Amino acid sequence: MTEAKTTITDRRAEDFIASVEPPAKRADALVLDAMFRRVTGAQPRMCGPSMIGYGDYRTTYASGRDVHWMRAGFSPRKARHTHYLMGGYCDDIMAADRTGALARLGKHTVGKGCLYINKLADIDLAALEDIIVVDWQTMQRLFPES
Q1: How does pLDDT run across 53-108, given as a tens digit for each residue?
Q2: Residue 106 belongs to domain spanning
Q3: In a domain? residue 6
Q4: β-bridge mates for residue 45, sequence order
Q5: Is 87 helix (H, G, I), strand (E, B) or coil?
Q6: Considering the domain boundaries, does residue 79 fall inside one?
Q7: Please, which residues have CB within 8 angstroms of residue 19's CB and are 6 or more apart in sequence?
Q8: Strand partners, 67
Q9: DSSP 75-104
Q10: Fewest CB atoms less than 10 Å from the CB: which of 1, 11, 95, 137?
Q11: What is the CATH classification number for the domain harbouring 77?
């Protein structure tokens, strides 16, 4: 079994956010960090060089691969912010239930376990927070902390 390429590191999320360019993307990252901290109650941890994670969980895929990964998080990428919201990926009911919040969100696209937003000015922050809350609760239900 191969090791995951992206793992939780000891790098400080605050240092990474301070280095984000351009300044507008950095300002968005500060808002997102505050939101994730408030919703999750977790301190941020870096996952790889550019992903900021909140909380973690362990699971084993059907393939037998063991995974240790963030419960939720984001990456302030140049083109767009990527939000890692695993609850919608892990739970079909939760994914269906967030349809209303996604409709209120504003300009975005979605991938399998990701939500993509160009800039926070494009969206309704309350809708994003609602999505993060439900996603976090789903992850807590599916993967209780031991």
Answers
A1: 999 988 887 888 887 889 999 999 988 999 998 777 677 777 677 788 899 999 99
A2: 13-142
A3: no
A4: 53
A5: helix
A6: yes
A7: none
A8: 59
A9: EE-SS-EEEEEHHHHH-HHHHHHTHHHHHH
A10: 1
A11: 3.90.1150.200
